């Protein structure tokens, strides 16, 4: 109810001012708010805005020269790839640069064909234009890769000769400027990209180097790249094992109470295994061959053998003294052929294997003792360390037959949790320096608003509100004059001055009321001239009220 009464009182006061005064107050308020908003907009807007970003040095130089000739203030970022102009001049600067064909990257692509005429173009010029367009398109594609800021591609295509036995393969060289330190992976991707875009080119014919002169990839450097690839693979495997151990120990010990170091030794030798397996239990009779042979032979001779008995004289020789022999041979062969099942296994391994694994884990002794009760026995600490070692071995996938070594030790950390401590907030001075521009703008807007209110809104409101009080002021002046005349008449009666034939009070009142156009200042001066003491008393009474 109190709020409603205040609203009704405010509404009645506004209605009492009249439409003319309300309109004047509204115009003054809108003017003040508009001027304050405009001042805040112009003071808080940025000093400069981006004209073009991602430019190379040649484009930046050309754009700077064109803007300087057009008398347009500009600035270049610290990396030298972004041009900035003053706020509000972006459209004008871009129209001026578009008129001059800027920015115009030197890595022109297929738009080179738009500038060629249809007449007077030789085959050599056509070939050069084709190579330039291919180089430009490849450079643009390479610059789209993450971390590559600029790229230049040089292509040498095969020259078809009539008296050449061996065909010359095409080759290419690429120069890149990047922000990432690991350029080897990007160089491999660039080699395959360029080789796939040019017919007859292999990745071995593409050479990649950076702007520092470091050779990233060249020729068939698989043997040279093997150590780097081996080291990168070992780092990746070690990082993965470390993450697994950290995920296991974090809920158990807390992230700030242990440190892990993992070293993995890998073997990337390629292996090829050929194996043939015969199964004697699985056989099938294929053929049977049987051979039978019988041989009989008889030998007889009439001549007697030369013996001592034969040399003795006898009456008549015996006819049965000859030699006789009989021979009989029998042969039988049986051959059975079987088909035995066999299996051939060929295994080619091109991956990697872990030769050995070394893991070292340091545990915060204070936290470990606190988890065991503060002052545990040495056996309890040893059992806890053995449990941690088993957890680490399981998380790392270690095997004792492989020669893996896992060591868990409890040590006193120098500054436990210092690396994970929250970053202290910036000091007050640093915060003020960071927000100096915003503070200045806000203070300027506040000062402008106060000046508008003090010198604009306050005098106007005072002048409008003082207009309805003029009639009340005139009535108060008349009442004061009447009081003054009554005081004077009483004073004259008391002093008994009979020589005053004409009453000056009546003349004064008639003079004041008879000339309504006279200003209040003139009226007040007339009252003061009539009687200074009484006028001062009346003024004191007004001031007191």
Describe the structure.
This protein has 16 helices and twelve strands. Helix 13 (470-495) packs antiparallel against helix 14 and helix 15 crosses helix 16 (532-544). 48% of the residues lie in helices and 23% in strands. The protein is elongated. With 545 residues, the protein is α+β, with helices and mostly antiparallel strands. It has helices spanning 2-17, 19-44, 57-69, 90-99, 123-143, 184-197, 222-253, 308-311, 365-371, 378-396, 428-434, 436-466, 470-495, 504-514, 520-530, 532-544, and strands at 48-52, 74-76, 83-86, 148-156, 171-178, 206-210, 215-217, 258-267, 271-301, 323-349, 353-364, 405-411. Mean pLDDT is 76; it is low at 491-506. Strands 4-5-6-7 form a four-stranded mixed sheet. Strands 1-3-2 form a three-stranded antiparallel sheet, covered by helices on one side. Strands 8-11-12 form a three-stranded mixed sheet.
Provide the residue-averaged pLDDT: 76
Largest sheet: 4 strands, mixed
The percent range for strand residues is: 15-25%
Structural class: alpha+beta
What percent of residues adopt helix (DSSP H or I)? 40-55%
Throw out a few tags for this protein:
545 residues; alpha+beta; 3-stranded antiparallel beta sheet; 16 helices
Topology (elements, then pairings):
Layout: H1 2-17, H2 19-44, E1 48-52, H3 57-69, E2 74-76, E3 83-86, H4 90-99, H5 123-143, E4 148-156, E5 171-178, H6 184-197, E6 206-210, E7 215-217, H7 222-253, E8 258-267, E9 271-301, H8 308-311, E10 323-349, E11 353-364, H9 365-371, H10 378-396, E12 405-411, H11 428-434, H12 436-466, H13 470-495, H14 504-514, H15 520-530, H16 532-544
Parallel strand pairs: 5-6, 11-12
Antiparallel strand pairs: 1-3, 2-3, 4-5, 6-7, 8-11, 9-10
Helix pairs in contact: 2-12, 7-10, 13-14, 15-16
């Amino acid at each position: 109810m109190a709020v409603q009464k205040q609203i009704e009182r405010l509404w009645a006061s506004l209605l009492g001012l009249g439409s003319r005064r309300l309109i004047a107050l509204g115009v003054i308020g809108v003017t003040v708010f508009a001027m304050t908003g405009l001042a805040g907009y112009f003071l808080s807007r940025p000093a400069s805005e981006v004209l073009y970003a991602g430019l190379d040095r040649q484009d930046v130089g050309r754009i700077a020269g064109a803007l300087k000739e057009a008398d347009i203030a500009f600035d270049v970022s610290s990396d030298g790839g972004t041009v900035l102009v003053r706020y509000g001049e972006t459209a004008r600067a871009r129209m001026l640069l578009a008129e001059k064909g800027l920015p115009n990257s030197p890595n022109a692509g297929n738009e080179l064909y738009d500038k060629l005429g249809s007449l007077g173009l030789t085959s050599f010029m056509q070939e050069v234009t084709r190579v330039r367009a291919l180089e430009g398109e490849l450079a643009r594609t390479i610059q789209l890769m993450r971390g590559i800021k600029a790229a230049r591609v040089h292509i040498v295509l095969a020259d078809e000769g009539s008296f050449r036995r061996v065909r010359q393969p095409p080759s290419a060289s690429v120069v890149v400027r990047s922000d990432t330190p690991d350029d080897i992976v990007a160089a491999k991707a660039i080699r395959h990209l360029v080789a796939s875009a040019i017919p007859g080119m292999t990745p071995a014919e593409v050479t990649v180097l950076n702007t520092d002169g470091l050779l990233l990839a060249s020729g068939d450097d698989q043997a040279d790249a093997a150590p780097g690839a081996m080291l990168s693979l070992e780092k990746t495997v070690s990082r993965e094992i470390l993450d697994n151990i950290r995920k296991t120990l974090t809920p158990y010990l807390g992230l700030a109470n242990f440190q892990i170091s993992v070293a993995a030794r890998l073997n990337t030798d390629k292996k090829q295994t050929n194996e043939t397996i015969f199964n004697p239990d699985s056989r099938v009779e294929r053929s049977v061959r049987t051979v039978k042979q019988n041989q009989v032979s008889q030998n007889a001779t009439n001549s007697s053998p030369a013996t001592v008995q034969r040399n003795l004289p006898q009456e008549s020789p015996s006819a049965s003294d000859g030699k006789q022999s009989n021979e009989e041979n029998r042969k039988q062969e049986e051959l059975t052929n079987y088909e035995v099942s066999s299996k051939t296994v060929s295994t080619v391994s091109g991956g990697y294997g872990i030769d050995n694994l070394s893991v070292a884990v340091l545990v915060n002794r204070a936290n470990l003792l606190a988890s065991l009760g503060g002052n545990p026995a040495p056996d309890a600490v040893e059992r806890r360390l053995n449990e941690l070692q088993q957890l680490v071995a399981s998380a790392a996938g270690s095997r004792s037959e492989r020669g893996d070594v896992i060591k868990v030790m409890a040590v006193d950390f120098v500054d436990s949790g210092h690396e994970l401590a929250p970053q202290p907030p910036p000091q007050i001075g640093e915060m003020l320096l960071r927000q100096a521009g915003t503070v200045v703008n806000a203070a300027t807007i506040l000062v402008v608003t106060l000046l508008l209110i003090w010198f604009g809104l306050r005098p106007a409101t005072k002048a409008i509100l003082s207009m309805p009080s003029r009639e009340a002021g005139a009535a108060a002046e008349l009442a004061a004059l009447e009081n003054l005349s009554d005081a004077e008449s009483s004073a004259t009666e008391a002093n008994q001055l009979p020589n005053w034939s004409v009453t000056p009070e009546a003349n004064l009142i008639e003079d004041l009321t008879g000339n309504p156009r006279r200003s209040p200042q003139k009226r007040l001066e007339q009252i003061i001239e009539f009687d200074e003491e009484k006028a001062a008393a009346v003024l004191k009474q007004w001031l007191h009220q």
